[in-house]
Amino acid sequence: MPTQHGEPARHIAYVPYFPLGGFSPLQSDVLESVAKRLGATTTAVAQSWLPQHSPNIMLIPGTSSVTHLRENIAGTALTVPADTVGELDAI
């Protein structure tokens, strides 16, 4: 089955390494503004936003605390609206 861009689908998962900046988390006024509008943390927004680009993106978020675990779980329940995805893509 071809992808949306016409290339053949290869069913390969993409796992970004430190997609949110790793030990130095992604800092952005745009991300913070979107998180505030959606009533979510910046981590939850970013973890929801990245997989919306392609069904083969797999996030494996690490966590060092219960608070981070809760943020990771919240990101799975959040859907970033299409117009907002475009706003975040400009970061």
- Secondary-structure content class: mainly alpha
Strand content: under 5%
Helix proportion range? 40-55%
Q: Count of helices?
A: 4
Q: How large is the radius of gyration?
A: 14 Å
Q: What average pLDDT do the residues reach?
A: 77
Describe this structure in words.
16% of the residues are buried. The chain has 4 helices and no strands. With 91 residues, the protein is mainly α. Helix 1 (29-38) crosses helix 2 (42-49) and helix 2 crosses helix 3 (66-77). Helices cover 42% and strands 0% of the residues. The longest helix has 12 residues, at 66-77.
In short:
With 91 residues, the chain is mainly α. It has helices at residues 29-38, 42-49, 66-77, 82-89.
For this entry, give a set of tags.
91 residues; mainly alpha; 42% helix
Topology:
Blueprint: H1 29-38, H2 42-49, H3 66-77, H4 82-89
Helix pairs in contact: 1-2, 2-3
